[in-house]
Specification:
Rossmann fold, 32% helix, 4 domains, 484 residues, nine-stranded antiparallel β-sheet, Elongation Factor Tu (Ef-tu), domain 3, alpha+beta
Amino acid sequence: MRARGAQVTDIVILVVAADDGVMKQTVESIQHAKDAQVPIVLAINKCDKPEADPEKVKKELLSYDVVCEDYGGDVQAVHVSALTGDNMMALAEATVALAEMLELKADPTGPVEGTVIESFTDKGRGPVTTAIIQRGTLRKGSILVAGKSWAKVRLMFDENGKTINEAYPSMPVGIVGWRDLPSAGDEILEVESEPRARQVVDWRKYEQEQEKNKEALKLIEEKRKEHQEAHRKAREKYGTLHWKEISLIKYKEKKQQQPLKLKERVERESNVLPVIIKGDVDGSVEALLDIMDTYDASHECELELVHFGVGDISENDVNLAETFHGVIYGFNVNAANVIQQSAAKKGVKIKLHKIIYRLIEDLQEELSSRLPCNVEEHIIGEASILATFSVTEGKKKVPIAGCRVQKGQLEKQKKFKLIRNGHVLWKGSLISLKHHKDDISVSKTGMDCGLSLDEEKIEFKVGDDIVCYEEKEVVAKTSWDPGF
């Protein structure tokens, strides 16, 4: 979204908080501005806060080749406060001054050219785009093409929602009249008539279809080669065997590949998270999909995108989620009471968010909930073996370890392990724990005790360590790091 904005605009106003300083998103914005070769005006915000430090911001920006005028550079820096409105006019004047110096001009005549900034679906108006006009003058009734959609302009409105009849270069404008929803970033071009617009859109759709067919043919060819190779290997494997022997081998192989048991099938399904993404505008959905593209923890839990789109959550979304046992995530959209009640009846989760970071955190938590719990060992006590001997019980001899508790305590009901030279030789439970001749349940630090294991074949050696521990289940967390 930032990259697209930098390509569309002529001047970038870089907003940096005076209390936070340069953040990751600031560095990313600077890079996009440099890539697009667009000049920067620095707006240092939140200057009304007591902890604000504008000079610190300017110094931090030096390491990213953004040199303010105070330090001998050409970047104007304006101290502002969005909360109080301080210096907002000074920021506007700095922007206008830079535009005059750069002699930024546009041609208001000729066919309209522009760029789609955002697109969304309005209940009363249908598909709506917000756009920047870069050339020509847009008027009501103009025929436009953007991506694989076209429009006859029925209505235009400005940034305040006021209806306008004309939009000149550099004006942000809302456009109503699209047949389909264009994508954010699509180039807008004016054509002479509706038949011409349909012709252009049909050609673009045809080209996209041809491109898809090429990719499909490439995949088919790869699969064909794989099958040929598998067939060749199978022929080599069976060699000159009689057909009866081949049939018997195939029968045995098929028998081994039996369907998954119910438990295994449930486990496999629990390691897949199908999701449906709905956003208020095309750019929001694009940003969410870009973040999901960074998912790299499929070995833990597969993230499956079932459907995505623009607009409020619908009954169709709920039905899809029910079919795939998925979760619906909505960003800046609503779900009517009827939809929420339907989802509750069908056992479908609907999660609505206003902040994109919170939505991704929620997605991470949902992925983590699908992972099996980690088992962690918590040590309760440690003891050293000082002597070994055996006692006779009935007709068998039971090896006994004479120990002294060095740390914590030994609790008979807990789990134990025997360690020799750093290697675990045994894990299990105790049969007995005694102090002198008395049975005890706990042996504390400094106490001597004798113990026997539930494994008779284990031989104790002086110097071995006995560790008493308990196992606790800890909720696993996904290793996916979306980068913020």
